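Folding problem:
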Amino acid sequence: WQPEYFTRLWCVYELAAFHYINLGVSGLVDLLPLKLPVLALSLFCFHFAATAATVVLGPTLAFSEMHATWILENVPVVLHVPWMFMILSMFFVALYTIPGFILWKFCQSHMEDRKVLLKQLREFRMDLAECQVESDREFIESKLTTWFGGVEEFELIIRNKIAELVAQRMKDRGPIPWTLMFTG
């Protein structure tokens, strides 16, 4: 799903056909933003790079001859281990700070998209859906009349039944599907 999905008549027809073919079992409909797989891939790539940096750069920098000499000259012996732990912790935190802000912005955008989806479903109107060829609109409206008894009846299904199922699914799943986050 993208915010433009319910503004396109053929996309709406796709949902109607799915709903009709599955005899109204709309629980099968799962609308996920298309950007979530990008998030999972980005998280995977970032964690791979961060792990590589932590494993390679951390010890290389922390245990370099120059750093070891500085520690021996300037840090009391009893603080050598805590000092190294602090340096490696700071490296790790610094490594995750900037991507953390980016992830936060993504999550804000994602939560706005969820609100937009529910608003689009609850306020759906066929006459506002875009269609390039007017004969397509006539074809789709005739199919909706055959399947659901009319365009108005289909609009009510979208506004009530589908909107409620999507809202419940969002509530049950949480902001981002845990399986997707785990994959990332």
Observations:
- The helical segments are 9-21, 36-62, 65-74, 80-122, 134-148, 151-173, 178-183.
- The mean pLDDT is 82.
- The first helix runs from residue 9 to 21.
- The radius of gyration is 26 Å.
